[in-house]
Amino acid sequence: MADETPLPPHLAMMQLLFGKQITYSLSGVARLGVADHMDALPRPVEEIAAKAGAHAPSLYRVMRLLASFGVFNEGPSRQFALTPIGELLKTDAPGSIRNNAIMFGDEFSTRAYEHISACLRTGTDGVTEAYGKPIWEVLVERPGQCERFQNAMTASSAGAAQAIVEAYDFSGIRHIADVGGGHGLLLASILRAYPDVQGVLFDRPEVIASVPKEQFAGCADRIVLEAGDFFERIPDGCDAYLMKYIIHDWSDEHCRTILSLIREKLPRDGRVLLCELVVTDEPGPTQAKLLDIEMLVMTMGGKERTEEEFAALFAASGLRLNRIVPTERPICVIEAVPA
């Protein structure tokens, strides 16, 4: 098959600029729960709109756009059906990212991106520019958005957790702490796969208070929920400390503080496991490069890092990069041991 003819530069640029329309269209239909009223069978847009509480002509225009990107299948007579991509917008779908889609349209996110030019000029973050305080303080003041953020992080963990457990051998660990572990989905996955392991879920008080009771079904007798601030202390008595998508939220200085506190608690045979994306020399678009911009705008100094940057962070904290274990997802398990 012959290569597709590239778009003229001005059309290619316009297509990139219209990424906003795609993001907000996805966020809008997710917020209305449109996919929850659909399946693989074509349905008239009027029927879908009535169930979702939407204005049918407007919904049609948005669904028509999203169909062109594979989210829906558009049939004759303005009928639409879900594709495998669109299934991910259903609330109860395996691997659902509905909360993620809604979150990308939440006020704290949209206002932050209004200030991306300030981020580029000064190195500040968009949330602080918009609200005068970092994202974590903003979310505490907005319980609904905070809950959606935590649900989005849990949803993001669902597929990644299985990939991490399949790729990394946790045998030999006796007691593992999931530092900043949110609602504990990854930790629960590890404990179910390794019945000899004990666990500690450590996060901010408001996060620990919102952990669903059913989260640790089948392993609740091997888990302790502990509230605290990982800039001040780390749980005692563990031979492994796990952090998923935590280090990328913070500047190098903040990361050295967290890792140094862990190093103080770590036994000689202990290990630190960071579950993060790794920026590579791949010239094309990657999830790591995209998420790196989210960190630029949403956090104070957070970023996605290269292997060399992880090694430098560890070295400055009394640790040594031991290996990087890839998974079937973009996320890797980055293992460090005492230096």
Walk me through this protein's architecture.
- This protein has 339 residues and is α/β, with parallel strands linked by helices.
- The chain folds into two domains: 9-95, Orthogonal Bundle (Arc Repressor Mutant, subunit A), CATH 1.10.10.10; 160-338, Vaccinia Virus protein VP39 (Rossmann fold).
- 45% of the residues lie in helices and 17% in strands.
- The strands form three sheets. Strands 6-5-4-7-8-12-11 form a seven-stranded mixed beta sheet, sandwiched between helices. Strands 1-3-2 form a three-stranded antiparallel beta sheet. Strands 9-10 form a two-stranded parallel ribbon.
Order of helices and strands: HHEHHEEHHHHHHHEHEHEEHEEHEHEE
- End-to-end span in angstroms? 53 Å
**What fold name stands as the CATH topology of the largest domain?**
Rossmann fold
> Which superfamily, in CATH terms, is the homologous superfamily of the largest domain?
Vaccinia Virus protein VP39
Write the layout of secondary structure elements.
Blueprint: H1 9-17, H2 19-32, E1 43-44, H3 45-52, H4 56-67, E2 72-75, E3 79-82, H5 84-87, H6 98-103, H7 107-113, H8 116-122, H9 126-131, H10 135-140, H11 143-167, E4 175-179, H12 185-193, E5 198-203, H13 205-208, E6 223-227, E7 240-244, H14 252-265, E8 271-276, E9 278-279, H15 287-298, E10 305-306, H16 307-315, E11 319-326, E12 332-338
Parallel strand pairs: 4-5, 4-7, 5-6, 7-8, 9-10
Antiparallel strand pairs: 1-3, 2-3, 8-12, 11-12
Helix pairs in contact: 2-4, 3-4, 11-12
